[in-house]
Amino acid sequence: MDVLEVTDRAVELATRKLKQKVKELERAYEDLKALDRMKDEFLAMTAHELKTPLTPMLSLVRQILDRDLGKLNEKQEKALRIVSRGAERLGGSIEKILEISKLESGRMELNKEKIQLASLIQDVIEQMKPLARLKKITLTQRITKFPPVEADGRRMTTVLTNLIENAIKFTSDGGKVTVEAKQRGNRALVQVRDRGIGIAKRDLPKLFTKFFQVDHTKPGAGLGLSISKLLVEAHGGKIRCESKLGKGSTFSFTLLVKG
Questions:
Q1: Residue 113: which of 258, 238, 259, 252 has the closest Cα?
Q2: What is the rounded CA–CA span in Å between residue 184 and residue 23?
Q3: Which letter, b or e, does each residue of 151-166 get, where b requires 16 or more Cβ atoms within 10 Å of its Cβ?
């Protein structure tokens, strides 16, 4: 057997082994995809099951607090308000799980239309002002005029609410949060800047991952940023974060303008 024949057999053997490994990897990949689908289905099903009894429970608590079912003393009212806030937070987390499940499975349809992003931002800021006042945080805006964007207004409201709410949550009492919007080339650039606790460099790559939380002492399911990323990308935009520990963070996203 000459050298060439030995080489050919070695190459043939190596090729067979390589094909076998490729098939094994493909099977493993398909198994992982199936597990991921099962996980998403489980989360969606669990969220639905939790939501079903929660809605009448919240309704009943509100009726009691409104004195529709009789008088309350001060201690009872205080306890029920704690229950109500906890149930509302749970309801918000459930809604986020359902939303991210729809986004990842491609079942969410966007109702795009031409919208004035500046007006939308101003509306969200007005809605966020009471939350900012509770922490004596100054909420300001710097918005320049630019053409409308083609987007789903309700979904963009979700993105802006998530980003501004996060900025307020992680900013110390008496701090400042600024929302800026301007045109950069053929895109609208929106930035939410805070002077809060900041984010460690090692955490930045995980920031938009589901259930990731920078500070576990703060309430939340760790889904807001993940949902925001999926929604922005569904609109053909990009989202990012720049941050320094102890100095604050700036979350930015872009959308195509229709000028």
A1: 258
A2: 47
A3: bbbebbbbbbebbbbb
CA distance 20 to 29: 14
Task: Kindly tell me if the per-residue pLDDT of 111 is higher than 70.
Answer: yes
Question: Which position has the token pair 């945080």?
Answer: 137
- CB neighbour list of residue 165: distance below 8 Å, 6 or more residues apart: 128, 131, 224
pLDDT of residue 238: 92
CA distance 200 to 191: 19
Q: What is the mean pLDDT of residues 219-246?
A: 85
Q: Give me the pLDDT at residue 216, please.
A: 46
Q: Return the pLDDT at 211.
A: 72
Q: Could you read off the pLDDT of 159-182 as tens digits, one per residue?
A: 999 999 989 988 888 889 999 999
Give 254's DSSP letter: E
Distance CA 115, CA 138 (A): 27
Cα–Cα distance, 96 to 162 (Å, whole number): 11
Taking only the tens place, the pLDDT of each residue in 45-70 is 766 666 677 777 778 888 888 888 88
Single-letter residue type at 15: T
DSSP state of 257: B
